[in-house]
Amino acid sequence: MTVKIFRGKHGTKHDLGKDHPESPDRLFAIDDQLLSSGLDMVCEHADATPIAEAHLSLAHDPYYVKSVFEHAAQAMFSDHEKTQYSENKDSVAWLDEDTGLMRHSLTAALESAGAGCNAVDWVMDGDDRQAFCATRPPGHHATYDSAMGFCVFNNIVIAARYALQTYELKRVAIIDFDVHHGNGTEQIVAGDQRIMLCSSFQHPFYPHSGSPVSASNILSVPLEAGATGDVFREKVQHWFDALRNFQPELIFISAGFDAHAEDPMAHLRLVEDDYFWISEQLRFIADECCHGRMVSMLEGGYDLSALGRSVVSHIKGMSRPSSVTA
C-alpha cells in the first residue's frame, strides 16, 4: 500500500467549544477506526508542516490573510489577559458566525494548508502514490477573501495551485463530494482552465450555491434531500469520461463525509460502500491519467462513527483495488 496519511500536531488542539460540530473528536474518531481496521499499520504516516505564509496567496487575498493573523493575535492576547479565575477555557476571535480562532487555531490552519503541499511533494516524488490529509480545520467554504463554514484557508485550492506552480503541471482535477457545496473552491477556481472541478452536494442547502455553475471548468451534481447512493452513483457517472478527456496530471479530492445517512448535518443517504466506490473510480482514472497520483483532504463529516468508517472505506478505495478489499 502506498497511501500516506498526513496529520497536523495542532489539529486536535483547535477547539471552539463543546457545542461546536467541527470538533477535535473528529480526528480521534478517524484514528480509532484506522486502528481497528488495521489500516493504521499498513499506511505510512507523516506530520504536516505549517505552510509558508506566501503560499496562502495562491488562493487568498493578502489582505484577508493579514486579517486572519490579526484575529489570531487578538485571540492570543485575550487569552494571556485572562486570570486563573476565568470561566472561559479559551478566548475565541470569530471570523464569521461559526468560524473562529482560539490560541491553537492559526497553527492548526497553517498545518492543514501545509499538509496539502506536503502531500503534493510526496506524491510527485514517485509513481503510484496516494495521500490523505487527516487535518482540520477544513477548507472548501473559504473564499478568496473570507472565512466561512468552519473553514479558514481553502486547503484544496492552495494544494492544487501549489502543484501547478511547483511542478509545472498543466492540468489538475478537484473532486468534491462533501454534502455542502464547496462555494469557496468554486469561486476561486472558476474560469481557471488548468483546473477541472467536479462537485456533488445537497441542493438547495447551505451555502445555497452551486447551481447553476459559474464557469465551463466546473461540473456540478446537485442532489435532492433523501438521495441514496444509487442516485449519487448515477448522477456522477459523466464525471469519469470528462476527467479522462481532461487528462489531469494529479487528482485532488475534497473528501467530505457528511452525505452519510447517519450524519446529523444534512439529508443525503450515502453509506461507506458509496465512498469506497467513488474513491475506487477515481483511482482507476488516476491510474489511467496520472500514474496513480492522488491527494485527498478531509472536509466535513460530523457523525463520529460514520466519519471514521467512511474514511477507512475512502482510503481502501484509493488504494490499489487488487491489494485491499472493502
From TrEMBL:
Residues 20-317 form the Histone deacetylase domain. It comes from the Bacteria. Residues 1-23 are annotated as: Disordered. Residues 1-12 have a biased composition (Basic residues). Gene3D superfamilies: Histone deacetylase domain. Residues 13-23 have a biased composition (Basic and acidic residues). It holds the Pfam family Hist_deacetyl. SUPFAM superfamilies: Arginase/deacetylase. PANTHER family: HISTONE DEACETYLASE HDAC1, HISTONE DEACETYLASE HDAC1-RELATED. Belongs to the histone deacetylase family. This is Deacetylase. It comes from Alteromonas gracilis.
